[in-house]
Amino acid sequence: MTFPPLMAALVLAATALSASAEDVVVYSARAEQLIKPLFDAYTRDTGVQIKFITGAEGPLMERLKAEGQNTPADMLLTVDAGNLWQASHQGLLRPIQSKALQDNVPAHLRDPGNEWFGLSVRARTIVYNTTMVKPSELSTYEDLADPKWKGRLCLRTAKKVYNQSLVAMMITEHGEPKTEAIVKGWVNNLATAPFADDNKAMEAVANRQCAVTVVNTYYYGRLMATQPKYPLAIFWPNQNLTSKDAGVHVNVSGAGVTRHAKNPAGAQKLIEWLSSDLAQNQFADNNLEYPVNPKVKPAATVAAWGSFQPNLINVKDAGSLQAQAVKLMDRVGYK
Question: pTM for this structure?
Answer without folding.
Answer: 0.91
